[in-house]
Amino acid sequence: MISDIVRFFLDPFHLFLFFIVAGFISILMRKDRCKQCFFSVAFVWLLLITTPFLPFLILNPLESKYNPILEPDPMLMETDVHILVLAAGYSWNERLPSNSQLDKKTLGRLIEGIRLYKKLPNSTLITSGPYNNPKISQAEVAKQAAIDLGVPEQMILVQDLPMTTAEEVHYYLSNHYEGQEVIVVTSAFHMHRAVQLFKRAGIEVHPSPTNFRYKDMEGLRITIMPSTNHIETLRKGLFEYAALLRDNLSSKITCNELPDRS
């Protein structure tokens, strides 16, 4: 409940609506100076959140912290490796192939995990994600997609109970970790928080981020036209910084008790 309230007030578009509503209230109250102030601030804020510069300043520092693993370190080639693909969402529909049931973020993460799996001879792929549908979990859908894309079923583990990143870390430590090297695959903007959670749990992981929102910096400099895509980018950045702050204020990883689905 509290996190939903925080997310509501951090949403940049909600702040724009607040200024607009305040402007109309000022009209009803015949406060001309306040009306002009609120509408002016709303216009400036709308320009800031729909053009690339502010979203870039917020999100790019997160995306720039880690680079993907293009070629694995020789040490990883000679040891057991777990490739943990963090969850991002799915929509179950039995008439669609498994890869089409995964949302774009999850599919991008899974493809990165499979790319690394094929480069590492002693690796195991781990898919993650809870039950949003009573018939099948996101982890199972991702596993089936990986099988369809050429990964042997016996080389895939699943963790289908965790609901959050912190729970994914906790579940992995409790059920799969036995001292292996661990590669974490998640979206670039989310990688810093995932790495920090693993560090706090006592594991140094190898990050391999994917789903970069900023790939073409030259294109960014010339794209000044307003777009709602920039609002979504800014929203992701603000939510991620809020989650980082929440995690940093906590003294240790805290996870809700996972439901029993046995």
Indicate the low-confidence ranges by residue numbers. Answer: 251-262
Secondary structure category: alpha/beta
- How do the helices and strands follow one another from N- to C-terminus? HHHHHEHHEHEHEHEHH
State the helical fraction: 40-55%
Strand adjacency order, main sheet: 3-2-1-4-5
What is the 3D shape?
A: elongated
Beta content: 5-15%
Please work out how many helical segments DSSP would assign: 12
Q: How many whole angstroms does the radius of gyration measure?
A: 21 Å
Question: How many strands, which pairing sense, and closed or not: the largest β-sheet?
Answer: 5 strands, parallel
Report the end-to-end length measured between terminal Cα atoms. 28 Å
Q: What's the total number of strands?
A: 5
- Mean pLDDT rating: 88
Task: Describe the 3D structure.
The protein has 262 residues and is of the alpha/beta class. Helix content is 55%, strand content 8%. The protein contains twelve helices and five strands. The protein has helices spanning 2-10, 12-28, 32-50, 53-63, 74-77, 98-101, 104-119, 138-148, 165-175, 188-200, 217-222, 228-249; strands at 81-85, 123-128, 156-159, 181-185, 206-207. The chain has a five-stranded parallel beta sheet with strand order 3-2-1-4-5, sandwiched between helices. Strand 2 (123-128), helix 8 and strand 3 (156-159) form a beta-alpha-beta unit. The longest helix is centred in the last third of the chain and has 22 residues, at 228-249. Mean pLDDT is 88; it is low at 251-262.
